[in-house]
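so my prof wants the structure for this chain in the tokens format not the other one, which i didnt know existed until like an hour ago. anyway here's the sequence
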Amino acid sequence: MTATSKDPVLVVLQLSGGNDYMNTIVPFSDPHYYDNRPLLQLAEDDLLRLDDEVAFNPSMGPLHEMYTKGDVAVLHGVGWSGSNRSHFRCMDIWHTAEPDEFASQGWLGKATRQIDPNGENPVTTVNVGQGLPRALVADGVSAASVANIDTYGMLTSVERTEQRAQMLDRFAKMYAPAIGRGPVAEYIAKTGTDALNGADMIAVAPKKYTSEVEYASNTVAQRLKDVAMIHTADIGTRILYTEFGGFDTHAAQAVNHPRLWEEVSGAVADFWDDLNAHDAADNVTLLVFSEFGRRVRENGGGTDHGAGGVAFVIGPNVKGGQYGEYPSIEADKLVEGDLAPGMDFRGPYAAILDDWMGIDEREIVGGEFERPPIFKN
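here's what i got, hopefully its the right format
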């Protein structure tokens, strides 16, 4: 765990849609990359190198700068065996840490229960955005959720109640197809609007927050700004979750994928600049993940759903570098045309839970998994 006396905090940024691993971390030294990406291939001279074999997408300049400072761990080939390329199912697996059966509790919901077993702080865990991610759901656990802190603070009590109802309704619509309406309805009936009561505590955060960092106006930047606002309000939040979509690049990937990473990289850099300016970065770690990678061979204008992907763990307590091996692109090493996952995602989860958060990971990830040594202490 960190040497700081502050409680460790985890921030999770979910990149929804299935980020293209091969055009995020580009295997420029492998001729198979160019064979499979005749239109979407990125020019070697434009890439931001990590070593003599792989490089960041040119749009990831701010993240590359953080990498060169040693604050970014790149996790290669993250996933699990038998991925079915379904957005619903794959994201459900990431959220519950259970790839073999449909689970009703989220990995961070279980973590919240360990951190605050008596539910004394309604803002121990906070979601910034619409709905309530299943990763935050667990029996007896309430997670605060707020779409926009600035506007939420100006709503009347009636309007806040309506917003809570809308969030829970969105939660039900998102996850009922995956686990059935019974468990979803039971969860909502049990927790009701209590699951979002902490949002009222969060409403005070803007009054405490000032910053000279000028975040961009895009969604991911504004959500990370809200995350920074909550963290610096010092209300005891230990887990913060947010999501940014658009990574389902079946078409127009050459335009959209670089733009998405430009927005994400800039937002992440601004987020850390903000925390550093507030002397509030030393106890924070950021996990960035997507539900799966994309197929090795392009479809002409984009890429289709794949398997093995990449994740990032970022922060001053991270031992930066690359972990795991980049999956082979050779045709006979692919799994139904996909990169074969080489790092079970529950390994990084275990490292984050145990090595960073100081939480017993075994009940959460359901066993022993090889964990990358991504933390300094």
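also thought this was worth mentioning. The first strand starts at residue 9 and ends at 15.
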